[in-house]
Amino acid sequence: MAHIRLINPNTTASMTASIYRAANDYAATGTQVSACQPEAGPVSIESHFDEAISAVGVAQEVIKGEQEGNIDAYVVACFGDPGLLAARELTRAPVVGIAEAAFHMATLISTRFSIVTTLGRTGIIAEHLLEQYGFRQHCRRIRAAEIPVLDLEHHPEAAYRRIVQECCRARDEDGIGAIVLGCGGMANLTQEISREVGLPIVEGVSAGLKLAESLIGLGLFTSKHGDLAYPRPKPFTGQFADFSNLTLPPGG
Amino acid sequence: MAHIRLINPNTTASMTASIYRAANDYAATGTQVSACQPEAGPVSIESHFDEAISAVGVAQEVIKGEQEGNIDAYVVACFGDPGLLAARELTRAPVVGIAEAAFHMATLISTRFSIVTTLGRTGIIAEHLLEQYGFRQHCRRIRAAEIPVLDLEHHPEAAYRRIVQECCRARDEDGIGAIVLGCGGMANLTQEISREVGLPIVEGVSAGLKLAESLIGLGLFTSKHGDLAYPRPKPFTGQFADFSNLTLPPGG
Amino acid sequence: MAHIRLINPNTTASMTASIYRAANDYAATGTQVSACQPEAGPVSIESHFDEAISAVGVAQEVIKGEQEGNIDAYVVACFGDPGLLAARELTRAPVVGIAEAAFHMATLISTRFSIVTTLGRTGIIAEHLLEQYGFRQHCRRIRAAEIPVLDLEHHPEAAYRRIVQECCRARDEDGIGAIVLGCGGMANLTQEISREVGLPIVEGVSAGLKLAESLIGLGLFTSKHGDLAYPRPKPFTGQFADFSNLTLPPGG
Amino acid sequence: MAHIRLINPNTTASMTASIYRAANDYAATGTQVSACQPEAGPVSIESHFDEAISAVGVAQEVIKGEQEGNIDAYVVACFGDPGLLAARELTRAPVVGIAEAAFHMATLISTRFSIVTTLGRTGIIAEHLLEQYGFRQHCRRIRAAEIPVLDLEHHPEAAYRRIVQECCRARDEDGIGAIVLGCGGMANLTQEISREVGLPIVEGVSAGLKLAESLIGLGLFTSKHGDLAYPRPKPFTGQFADFSNLTLPPGG
Amino acid sequence: MAHIRLINPNTTASMTASIYRAANDYAATGTQVSACQPEAGPVSIESHFDEAISAVGVAQEVIKGEQEGNIDAYVVACFGDPGLLAARELTRAPVVGIAEAAFHMATLISTRFSIVTTLGRTGIIAEHLLEQYGFRQHCRRIRAAEIPVLDLEHHPEAAYRRIVQECCRARDEDGIGAIVLGCGGMANLTQEISREVGLPIVEGVSAGLKLAESLIGLGLFTSKHGDLAYPRPKPFTGQFADFSNLTLPPGG
Amino acid sequence: MAHIRLINPNTTASMTASIYRAANDYAATGTQVSACQPEAGPVSIESHFDEAISAVGVAQEVIKGEQEGNIDAYVVACFGDPGLLAARELTRAPVVGIAEAAFHMATLISTRFSIVTTLGRTGIIAEHLLEQYGFRQHCRRIRAAEIPVLDLEHHPEAAYRRIVQECCRARDEDGIGAIVLGCGGMANLTQEISREVGLPIVEGVSAGLKLAESLIGLGLFTSKHGDLAYPRPKPFTGQFADFSNLTLPPGG
Asked: Which domain of life is it from (chains A, B, C, D, E, F) (predicted)?
């Protein structure tokens, strides 16, 4: 039995639930999925600032998971992969970001893809990730539906129509074979969009879950040799004092 | 029940068997693994020429698989990923190469990796793949144990020692967190090497199997929109006449 | 007297003849041109699959040429450069692909160029070659006339008009100085297109011939030091058994 | 009178003082320098995790600065540039990171440089920044003195000798013209190292101060058009509730 | 007192005066600005040829400056940065090009920028510089107002309108945060354009001045270790005989 | 009859003669070779400064050639390709640089090459050219024999030994298939070095001649559409007044 913990980096519980369902539908026999969200942080992530704050919550949730002691892998379920490398330092368990997961999967079924995301201003976050992960040349275009993240919850119909509209444009204009959905909040829409657009639609939450299962199945763990080794224990001050002299559990 | 077909692109049956075992050990509940090799081609793949010939066999095995009609994904089990894009054109099922699979997995558990392969002359094949897939900056160095591929079968002890030796050098000198094994024939050595070297060792056959399972689980298929669409049917002549006017099965 | 062998990787004899004429018109005094096509393979090359099969024929034609013993250089006359590195392994004689030849020449007379090819789906092949050869930044755009390759033979008037139309768009919209024709079948149209479009038009068959002449003239041969050394002799099975234990002629 | 606020992202006050002195020595007539550190966070930054936590402090210090209302530019004084893009979103004032500042300056006085940093494990942070900022080809090598950051305070002599030793190796082996010091804690050593090594030594705190002065002098502000616009106001929960519905001052 | 010498690489004195004013407005207390132009060369720089000739004048002006002996830094005030590396070889003083200066500054206040230049044909010069300096990915688009350089002097109103027009298009279509003005002759228009367009406008002459001030303030000099060392003295013939056996002043 | 003009960018007549012989040995039947050197400039080119001055001479020699009216192509015979793009603007005839020529040829016969040049300080010039031309990934290493250019004339034996020594190191350590000689003055040594080192040695003067012949044979000319169009005529002052209002001959 493998236990995969989804970390929703924002603090909107309903989005956590929706991400959980989206992932759980894809869980293999023998995979237990659980989901959590930080105790503190932004209700949605739509800027570098939101992302920076949310990274603390991601780290805290990994530390909690390590204390629970029975988590086999983590998925960071926000398309900017906030705190991903920090999270990897905190555990031997594999940690997968949903942006990277979606990019990896998209390159396995197409030669070029486009991204359809929520707000145009977050496009730069995706660009930086594409560069860091090596997929810049595989992504033809980043398109924004220009809807705030929480509209996916509050105005689902209108949001859905805008996303499908941009996906159809990507299909017709970008010379691509697949589309990556650029927001964890779109996870539950994948199949419906795919049917309507007629292209493979890659969504990161489910992709991240399957990559996490894969890494567990392969017996691979986050390398503790070199730059992802556990952080050197040290004092932290103020509201972050709990991070002081972190002793990560042996199983971690 | 998902059926994944491993295609060993060379014609050495014992290597097919070894690859089968290496993959089957990692198969999830509900995954049926089968393995095959081309009817015609080189007994090992150690050059661009060997690779070019083996690509025909890979294509033939995909066509056969499509005619069988019950294959859900293919894994091309040679580290040069021969015929990968051709194979993808021939089927809607996902097709995963073991080099790409290993690269993807290695980037999820480390920030930089090295490759340990058989012969130095095949390093250029890996370099070209790293460039095409986007992982050039993630790979610090390609190292060769300078052993012919079939020595992995004929002189397993000596071959094993040489590979471990290069892996240790990579660990100590390259500033990496993981090592990718650069030959399908090394698949059964992964765990032993990992124990001895003390780093995560990523091997492509098992990695390819898990990625194939993931794509099946996600309901993703090779995009038939754009440049991976089925090949236009047309006449082929001579020994390749069987490829003429290929009508791929509806399920394909 | 230098003997250059053109290898048309597809099996359409009329296209071989047309390529021969296109090249022969440009041959220097002292250059003998001959042309051949594989005994087996696709009648045209419009996909990764077609290309993979054609690479075998290319290799076979090089082996034949080496057995003839009087070939000084080879030109692989299909825009995807199928089997190019395999061919280079099989001979000390220089081997030039027409895509690479055209790219090289275009960069000598302009700072940026566009490609006009037949079908959009082959654009990815050109993109991968541009990346591998280093010319990605020199190519502004890959344009497709969306005509099947054999239409160049069957509907030459209509095909010609479509190609000119795309060339004019490239000239007016792409900010380029030259155009590369992306199909060996366009070889005989070069001068006419150039006159009509008013830009230098670079065509690969003639460019490949001149580069082959240049390499012969320079006394340069394909390096046998390192990764283009002759393939290690080994058994091949089935319909490829003739490749077994290849002993390439001393002059090869 | 221009007011530049140095933000030391770690919470070690003595390091803040040292950074302040290092910068103040270089301040132009008419520049007022002040320095601060977060109320909460790690005492030194030596990992992705430390960096992620420190980014919150950086953001908080910018928000405080904006509330003070008289800050003309900020310098983020840790070599990983933690929270840089988040900080830029929070203010119209220019914000400069010391890694980027050092890289920019180094390219103006040399064609290639090396970095000498504290711990090897932080090299990957510098590598990612070089890639994001565009300086990967300008940096020949990242070298680590393998000293913890606080040893710069606790064992200054030994630390200094190790740094000079690596700088000399860089000078002699790397084919470079300048060296970038990869830690804010080295700021006060710059001139001494430069004298001993005989190469231009670029240090980020002073470089960042001068770039901040330059941007102020030019009347340039952080663009609020597009992806660095103020974050959309929204609720934050828990210990981050203070960030809720942030209304940044008009002057901000 | 720091003395910064602006070198206008073209020979139009009125443009030198205009560049001088543009820079002097931004000079810090304690900075003395002087400006010069070559005795010989083109009246404006609009081609590789113009640029090649102007590089001689730039070198001559640096040599003159070194003989004067009191110059602390140089700014090469033409957007192609002609002769920049040659100039750096001739002096220990920092030398800053206005294209590089503008690029550096633009990346500090935005994540992506566009360039608005005079003639389309000079775009390739900017492209080559972006590649060499590392900023290719930061520049979304190079736009030309298609006005000859001297029209900035002869038809200022019309030229200004065309530039503003292109800047507005860049703002609305390119997904950028800042605009770089691609011609030294536009220096005096910066503030007016910025007001009208509503984006940060980065102009190289003022940016170069501030970077020069910064380097002086930091005590940084052009590295004489390695490839920017003083040129080896040697004979020059003909009209360039004056460059023979150049002995650069000790202070140089 | 095709007339190719070699331009030796330095003013050492004996080197012009040596370059002439090196090229003439490779001239095809029907090719007339002539060689010239600027009337003014450095006696050798070993720095950015030397190169900048020599670019004027290159331009002047092209203008002279155009006035002669019977030149079909030019070769710029210094490894830094000084003034290459300026030269291309001045004529419709093809202009080939010897660095680019050598790089192009080397990639046709090997997958990776190294450069052996004279002085280490000129390595950066080669690096910048590799980047601009697209061959950065094809060049494994730039090695310097650390001999001044004119030592090739004055101490030929010692220079030859040093070059062979570096070539052997490149062969044994760099993982390459070919070596590019990085100085026009080495042109006459090519065959001897190749025999001694046992690798294909690519030399730019002969390579440039053959590429020039190829372009002539193909009827290709330097594009006058876009950024290599003739320079706009304009006044030049001082010693460069002769360049004023350049009217290039109709044949040009």
From this structure: Bacteria
- List pLDDT tens digits, range B53-78: 999 999 999 999 999 999 999 999 99
Same domain, E120 and E180: yes
D114 and D193 in a single domain? The answer is: yes
Does residue C85 form part of some domain? yes
Mean pLDDT of B238-249: 89
Mean pLDDT of chain A: 94
The structural domain count of chain C equals 2
E135 and chain F in contact, CB less than 8 A: no
Q: Are residues A65 and A83 in the same domain?
A: yes
- Is A132 domain-assigned? yes
Domain that holds residue A168: 99-203
pLDDT at residue B251 greater than cutoff 80: no
Residues 95-124 of D with CB under 8 A from B: 120, 123-124
Task: Determine contact: E128 vs chain F, CB below 8 A.
Answer: yes
Q: Best interface-test mutation with D: which of F48, F127, F129 has the largest number of D CBs within 10 A?
A: F127
Q: According to the 3-state scheme, what is the secondary structure of chain E?
A: CEEEEEECCCCCHHHHHHHHHHHHCCCCCCEEEEEECCCCEECCCCCHHHHHHHHHHHHHHHHHHHHHCCCCEEEECCCCCCCHHHHHHCCCCCEEEHHHHHHHHHHHHCCCEEEEECCHHHHHHHHHHHHHHCCHHHEEEEEECCCCCCHHHHCHHHHHHHHHHHHHHHHHHCCCCEEEEECHHHHHHHHHHHHHHCCCEEEHHHHHHHHHHHHHHHCCCCCCCCCCCCCCCCCEEHHHHHHCCCCCCCCC
- Determine the Cα–Cα distance for residues B176 and B164; give it in Å rounded to an integer: 16
Asked whether residue B233 falls in the same domain as residue B194, the answer is: no
Q: Quick check: is A223 in a domain? A: yes
Contact check, Cβ <8 Å, C124/A137: no
Residue D131, exposed/middle/buried by CB under 10 A (0-12, 13-18, 19+)? middle
Best to test chain C binding among A107, A109, A110, A111 (most C CBs inside 10 Å): A111
**CA D156, CA D163: separation in Å to the nearest integer?**
10
Per-residue model confidence (pLDDT) at position F153: 83
Return the ∠ at Cα D136 (arms to D132 and D140), rounded to 5°.
Answer: 150
Give the CATH number for residue C159. 3.40.50.12500
Q: Is A178 within a domain?
A: yes
State whether residue F14 sits within 8 Å of chain C by CB. no
Determine how β-strand F2-7 pairs with β-strand F31-36: parallel
pLDDT of residue C251: 43
Interchain contact, F175 vs B123, CB within 8 Å: yes
Q: Do F81 and F141 belong to one domain?
A: no
- Closest chain F residue by Cα to residue D111: F124
B158 touches chain A (CB under 8 A): no
Q: Which residues of chain D have pLDDT under 50?
A: 251-252
Q: Which residue has the higher pLDDT, F138 or B248?
A: F138
ipTM: 0.96
- CB of C88 within 8 Å of a chain B CB? The answer is yes
Co-location of D199 and D214 in the same domain: no
User: Within the 160-189 window of chain C, which residues sit less than 8 Å (CB to CB) from chain E?
Assistant: 175
Q: Which residue of D has its CA nearest to B177?
A: D121
Chains F and B touch (3+ CB pairs under 8 A): yes
Q: Work out the mean pLDDT of chain F and round it to a whole number.
A: 94
Same domain, C234 and C141: no
Count of CA atoms in the C-beta half-sphere (13 A) of A69: 5
Spell out, as residue ranges, where chain A has pLDDT lower than 50: 251-252
B70/B156 same-domain check: no
